[in-house]
Amino acid sequence: MIKAVGVIGAGTMGNGIAQVFAQHGFGVLLHDASAAAIDRARATIEKSLGKFVEKGKLTAEQRDTAIAGIRPAASIDDLAPADYVVEAILENADIKKKLFADLDRITRPDVILSSNTSSISITTLGAATTRPDKVLGMHFMNPV
After folding, report:
1. Which stretches of the chain drop beneath a pLDDT of 70?
2. Which residues belong to the active site?
């Protein structure tokens, strides 16, 4: 059962993806190479969820629960407890392949690793792991 979701990349797509999972009751471990990006993502998510409360689509309690469910992951190694991982970093095949190789080492063998890529072959990313059958593409649209 998936309880904790790792989201890598705290930019426009990553923060939207983190918000969607948090709104639906998943704990989120949010990682970015920049701590400032994580801070900006949290502020963006808080503002977005606040708008949902203003429109009556969420209660203040639901907003607070979602926000509390998003924890920063300072190191990629902090994603080890994740049950599912979504990558949403820049579109660079070499960087993504290295990331997927690292995730393969860090996460449990049953963890599904997904990419938000719009242009890089999922087969290529899967080949960087020992579990290509557990690597998938999951392209979110912007805004999430």
Report:
1. 143-144
2. 139
